[in-house]
Amino acid sequence: MTKKSGWRALVRGWFLGAILVGLACLWVRFGWLEAQLAPAACGGKWVPGGGVACAAKFLLVQAFLEERIGWVAVLCAALSQLRGSRRWAVAALWLGVAATVFYAATPGVIAVLWALPRLWFCDAPRGWRARTSSP
């Protein structure tokens, strides 16, 4: 992290986004899904005429099954490391936080921990190479 960016840029960026994603997911899980506000008629199956609420519930259930959202987060974390991309790391962090809230804790935490070094030390490899290769 450079001195120029400072803590304000960090808090305004990916870190604040992760907190907001976590809070939103907690509200969806405990305030909508588990509080029985989600329509019970559609269950976890696709109902063509069920409306937006049934479609949202269907997509959430699909994300829970076999921890799919967590494995997508791990895939994003792997892409962030392979491509050296901060955008993939942010996606992995946010999806990992969502996965941790939505019943996929193990792959979600793996994705978060794998993405954090790319976010925190994004410029470190370039700076390290520059210091070691210059005469």
List the helices and strands and how they pair.
Blueprint: H1 6-33, H2 51-64, H3 68-83, H4 86-101, H5 105-120, H6 124-133
Structure description:
With 135 residues, the protein is mostly helical. It has 6 helices and no strands. Helix 3 runs antiparallel to helix 4. The protein is elongated and about 50 Å long. The relative contact order is 0.13. About 6% of the residues have low confidence.
Shape: elongated
Number of separate helices: 6
Helix content: over 70%
Poorly predicted sequence stretches spanning 5 or more consecutive residues: 124-131
Biggest sheet details: none
Order of helices and strands: HHHHHH
Mean pLDDT score, rounded? 81
Radius of gyration: 18 Å
The assigned structural class equals mainly alpha
Strand content: under 5%
Total strand count, please? Answer: 0
Cα distance, first to last residue? 24 Å
Summarize the model shown.
This protein is mostly helical and 135 residues long.
Which tags fit this structure?
74% helix, elongated, mainly alpha
